[in-house]
């Protein structure tokens, strides 16, 4: 008995010891796991590393049963077995690499019974890391890239302290608590992020149990949407009762092309039978605010609208029917609309339409769409519109059944089918094209029919048009089109005739295109006739799918056809040539050769002397060898010529070429610049072109050398004129210079034609800018020109070291004008009016500084000028700021030379109306009298005042100013009245010719506001006089005739003419 007890004790203590001994070694661990492998045939283990009591790694672990298959490439376990002594299973880390589970095809879901779980020990899972987790069920494959969690299970309570996962762009982070008994009550929170374009963020809170879940979810970015509600039986047949809403939505979130205002929705039922309602207001770039109200019923395959309504400024639309997305997108809908306004999308298409239609279709197995328009009625662009009929499309077949459209009195009828078999007819009668579009005019009518097979269609068409026009740029008085034939019909024909055609500035009396034969073998002839000539182009060839060939000639096309494009140029001669074209598959080959015959270009100049260029030897060639295109051209120029060679690729747009120009003498081009005389010099250049069509690069040089000319208007001779332009890639460097009168100008800068950018500098020293009797001016400029995108700006400084301005104009009347400017609206008979040039987009800010040798003589003034001005220009008027002073000046007036006491011309605004401040004093020392002539105000309305010290009468002051003597002394010397003496003094101003008018005895003298009026009554009713402005010298004859006691007729003749009738009424 004792031996039996000892044996049992040894067995009880030995087996655990043996197990622990085996688990503590790597070999023993393998033996134990191999034993388990035999005991559990569904489990297979490939490789074993480590020991069971510490760290264990298993590779290629699989689990196979008829219902489920599972495998993992690697399983690693690290745990603390000693914690079992305190009834705790502690797993430091459990790692699964590339686990995969294959589930059976989904069948009918069985009821799930939730087991109650209560463990006798505590389980701590401190880290579970799963990577590459795949769940496969039928065709469905779900990949979870990463899963990480930490949890504690004690009794029936499960605490998820950390839960993180990633599936594609979706990441999840959360945690919570779950009790594994009863209905598994839970409370969990999860934050999720979708890192796509755009990105999304949200938070979900789950409360309740696995029989009824309470969901609270919020979209946090890029917009806020809330959802709250319950889910019944989430593990079996989920019953949803969810509701949510938002305040503002935008899609896409960053651009906001579509926006939704405050909205709400509700979803109830199961996924196989749910009810959906939604209300919101949406708007977009081409959609005004529209109220959306949806009521529907659906499942996982389709949604039935019952109904969907949209209402806004664009009208009201009601949609009923069904949209399905399984197995493919398909729809069957009815549409009812009223007050529909297309003008909401296109402002020039306003309307008010009602619609009743049925639309159905599908994307698979082939695209099929059918629209049955019961009524479409209303107004469009203020014209009545009505349409009805059926249109159906399926797999390339189009069928129209009784489709009719009438709009603004224009009618279209379509009937038949276009598919593998063709039987489609069209009738058009549009007598009021202007009602379709205000830019369209005329009427057109026609009919056409398409018959036969798709591979061999036969077309017959007739079209007639009258008085057609488009937006005033295209006009056709008569249009006739007839066409008939099929691809293999040698008797096919085409005839297009247009009469009185005008395209912008181009006019043709008639254009006709005729063709005969089939597409595979045909002949074409194009004839065009206008007042300048007649052109013919013929071609013979054929076309079939993938291949084509044409050969043709250009027969004596008159160059005068280009006359409307060259309004200031006369061109004579003709162009002849030949061409060919071949295509095989994607490859094309073509050649073109042309030459000019008896070609003369004649340009009118302002002097009337035409410039004639003989271009008779001009010729060119072009060749296409797909994708390479090459072109050459040669044109003669005076003592030289223009040559060009261009090569390019049509696929990549690569560009390469050379342009050379040489003009041995500029003298034949004199007429182009009529303001220049004795033109000399040579022009030579060469340019290489590279880059692409979109971004060409120029490299080359253009040189104007040994040039000289006379500028007659300025009286100067320009010599040593040189301009050199050197292109280096995207920039062209410019430098040049000229001399005049011993002075010089220098020009430097750059020009970038791609960006329309230019920066130029103009500097000079004592350059003689004018050498005329009335003006001799030297300048020393330092100016900068900046131009970009059509805008120009001039800044800098212009010094005038020396100048003398002489104007013969004085204060005396009877003078002749020094020069006459021609009005801008002049018309010269026999010469076409010059083309209007658009105004320059120019601004300027230039400082003008006068030197020590600037003199002015004119208007009775002889003085040196000093000062400086800031000249600015912003369209439309120039402005100036600054002061010009008269220094050491004399003022010749009233037959006297008077010293200028002070003189200023003040600019502070428009340059043509400066302020004047001029004071001239005459001192009569022996009498102690000082007479002052003051000119103030503005140039357009100067004010003149004569003052004296001590104060005396204005007539007396005028006498002292005119003669240096008093009226009394004049009376004594002349034996007449004071007025007569003043008149004799006035005669010193050049008014002696009044004697010739019978005014030798002046009866009246008046002086007021700078005007001196002299005259007398020749009869009691007839007065003859002369009035003149003592400042400007302008005068006018004055005649008064009293018709009646209270009625006076007055006429004036001077710079202006007028006749006035005065009626005088005297009362007490």
UniProtKB/TrEMBL annotation:
InterPro entries: TamB_C. Keywords: Membrane, Transmembrane, Transmembrane helix. The keyword Transmembrane helix applies. It is a single-pass membrane protein. Residues 738-1065 form the Translocation and assembly module TamB C-terminal domain. It is found in: Membrane. Its main location: membrane. The keyword tRNA processing does not apply. GO terms for cellular component: plasma membrane; TAM protein secretion complex. GO terms for biological process: protein secretion. PANTHER family: TRANSLOCATION AND ASSEMBLY MODULE SUBUNIT TAMB. This is Translocation and assembly module TamB. The lineage of its organism: Bacteria, Pseudomonadati, Pseudomonadota, Gammaproteobacteria, Methylococcales.
């Amino acid at each position: 008995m004792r031996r039996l007890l000892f044996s049992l004790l040894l067995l009880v203590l030995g087996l655990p010891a043996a197990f622990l001994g085996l688990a503590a070694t790597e070999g023993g661990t393998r033996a134990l796991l191999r034993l388990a492998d035999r005991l559990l045939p569904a489990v297979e283990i490939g490789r074993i590393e480590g020991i069971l009591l510490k760290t264990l790694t298993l590779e290629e672990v699989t689990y196979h049963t008829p219902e489920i298959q599972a495998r993992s490439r690697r399983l690693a376990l690290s745990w603390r077995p000693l914690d079992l002594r305190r009834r705790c299973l502690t797993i430091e880390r459990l790692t699964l690499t590339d686990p995969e589970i294959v589930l059976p095809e989904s069948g009918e879901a069985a009821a799930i019974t939730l087991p109650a779980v209560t463990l006798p020990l505590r389980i701590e899972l401190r880290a579970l890391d799963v990577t590459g987790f795949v769940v496969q069920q039928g065709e469905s494959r779900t990949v979870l890239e990463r899963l990480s969690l930490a949890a504690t299970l004690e009794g029936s309570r499960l605490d998820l302290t950390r839960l993180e996962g990633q599936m594609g762009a979706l990441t999840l982070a959360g945690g919570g608590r779950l009790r594994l008994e009863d209905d598994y009550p839970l409370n969990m929170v999860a934050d999720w992020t979708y890192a796509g374009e755009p990105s999304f963020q949200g938070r979900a809170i789950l409360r309740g149990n696995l029989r009824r879940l309470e969901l609270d979810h919020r979209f946090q970015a890029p917009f806020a949407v809330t959802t709250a509600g319950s889910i019944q039986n989430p593990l079996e047949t989920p019953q949803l009762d969810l509701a949510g809403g938002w305040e503002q939505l935008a899609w896409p979130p960053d651009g906001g092309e579509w926006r939704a205002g405050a909205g709400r929705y509700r979803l109830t039922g199961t996924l196989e039978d749910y009810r959906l309602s939604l209300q919101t207001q949406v708007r977009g770039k081409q959609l005004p605010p529209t109220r959306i109200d949806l009521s529907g019923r659906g499942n996982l395959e389709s949604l039935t609208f019952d109904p969907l309504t949209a209402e806004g400024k664009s009208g009201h639309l009601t949609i009923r029917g069904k949209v399905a997305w399984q197995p493919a997108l398909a729809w069957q809908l009815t549409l009812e609309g009223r007050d529909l306004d297309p003008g909401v999308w296109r402002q020039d298409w306003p309307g008010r339409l009602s619609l009743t239609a049925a639309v159905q279709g599908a994307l698979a197995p082939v695209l099929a769409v059918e629209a049955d328009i019961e009524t479409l009625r209303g107004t469009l662009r203020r014209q009545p519109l009505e349409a009805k009929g059926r249109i159906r499309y399926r797999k390339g077949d189009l069928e129209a059944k009784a489709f009719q459209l009438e709009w603004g009195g224009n009618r279209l009828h379509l009937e038949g089918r276009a598919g593998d078999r063709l039987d489609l007819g069209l009738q058009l009668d549009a007598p009021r094209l202007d009602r379709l579009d205000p830019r369209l005019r005329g009427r057109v009518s026609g009919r056409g029919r398409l018959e036969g097979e798709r591979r061999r269609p036969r077309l017959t068409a007739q079209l007639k048009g009258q008085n057609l026009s488009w937006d005033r740029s295209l006009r056709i008085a008569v249009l006739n089109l007839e066409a008939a034939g099929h691809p293999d019909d040698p008797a096919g024909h085409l005839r297009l005739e247009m009469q009185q055609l005008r395209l912008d500035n181009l006019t043709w009396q008639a254009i006709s295109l005729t063709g005969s034969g089939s597409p595979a073998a045909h002949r074409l002839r194009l004839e065009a006739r206008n007042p300048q000539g007649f052109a013919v182009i013929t071609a013979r060839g054929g076309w079939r799918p993938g291949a084509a060939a044409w050969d043709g000639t250009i027969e004596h096309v008159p160059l005068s056809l280009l006359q409307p494009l060259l309004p200031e140029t006369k061109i004579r001669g003709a162009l002849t040539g030949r061409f060919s074209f071949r295509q095989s598959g994607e490859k094309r080959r073509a050649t073109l050769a042309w030459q000019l015959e008896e070609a003369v270009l004649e340009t009118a100049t302002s002097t009337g002397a035409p410039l004639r260029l003989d271009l008779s030897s001009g010729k060119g060639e072009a060749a296409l060898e797909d994708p390479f295109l090459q072109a050459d051209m040669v044109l003669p120029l005076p003592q030289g010529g223009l040559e060009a060679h261009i090569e390019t690729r049509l696929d990549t747009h690569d560009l390469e070429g050379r342009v050379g120009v040489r003009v041995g003498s500029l003298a034949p081009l004199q007429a182009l610049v009529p303001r220049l005389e004795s033109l000399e010099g040579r022009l030579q250049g060469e340019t290489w072109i590279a880059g692409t069509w979109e971004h060409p690069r120029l490299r080359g040089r253009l040189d104007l050398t040994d040039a000289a000319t006379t500028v007659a208007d300025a009286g100067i001779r320009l010599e040593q004129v040189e301009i050199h332009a050197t292109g280096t890639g995207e920039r062209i460097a410019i430098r040049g210079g000229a001399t005049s009168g011993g002075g010089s100008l220098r020009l430097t800068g750059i020009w970038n034609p791609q960006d329309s950018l230019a920066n130029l500098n103009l500097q000079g020293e004592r350059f003689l800018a004018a050498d005329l009797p009335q003006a001799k001016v030297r300048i020393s400029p330092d100016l900068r020109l900046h131009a970009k995108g059509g805008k120009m700006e001039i800044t800098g400084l212009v010094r005038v070291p020396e100048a003398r301005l002489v104007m013969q104009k004085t204060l005396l009347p009877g003078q002749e004008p020094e020069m006459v400017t021609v009005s801008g609206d002049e018309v010269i008979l026999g010469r076409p009016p010059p083309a209007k040039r658009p105004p320059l987009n120019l601004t300027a800010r230039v400082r003008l500084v006068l030197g020590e040798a600037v003199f002015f003589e004119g208007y009775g003034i002889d003085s040196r000028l000093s000062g400086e001005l800031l000249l600015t220009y912003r369209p439309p008027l120039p402005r100036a700021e600054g002061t010009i002073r008269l220094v050491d000046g004399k003022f010749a007036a009233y037959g006297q030379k008077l010293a200028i006491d002070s003189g200023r011309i003040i600019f502070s605004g428009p340059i043509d109306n400066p302020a004047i401040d001029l004071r001239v004093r005459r001192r009569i020392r022996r009498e102690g009298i000082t007479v002052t002539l003051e000119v103030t105000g503005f140039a357009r309305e100067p004010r003149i005042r004569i003052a004296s010290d001590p104060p005396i009468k204005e007539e007396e002051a005028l006498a002292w100013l005119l003669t240096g003597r008093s009226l009394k002394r004049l009376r004594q010397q002349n034996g007449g009245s004071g007025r007569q003496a003043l008149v004799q003094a006035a005669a010193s101003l050049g008014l002696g010719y009044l004697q010739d008018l019978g005014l030798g005895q002046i009866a009246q003298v008046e002086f007021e506001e700078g005007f001196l009026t002299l005259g007398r009554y020749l009869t009691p009713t007839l007065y003859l006089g002369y009035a003149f402005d003592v400042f400007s010298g302008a005068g006018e004859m004055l005649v008064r005739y009293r018709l009646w006691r209270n009625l006076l007729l007055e006429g004036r003749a001077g710079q202006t003419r007028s006749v006035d009738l005065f009626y005088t009424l005297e009362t007490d």
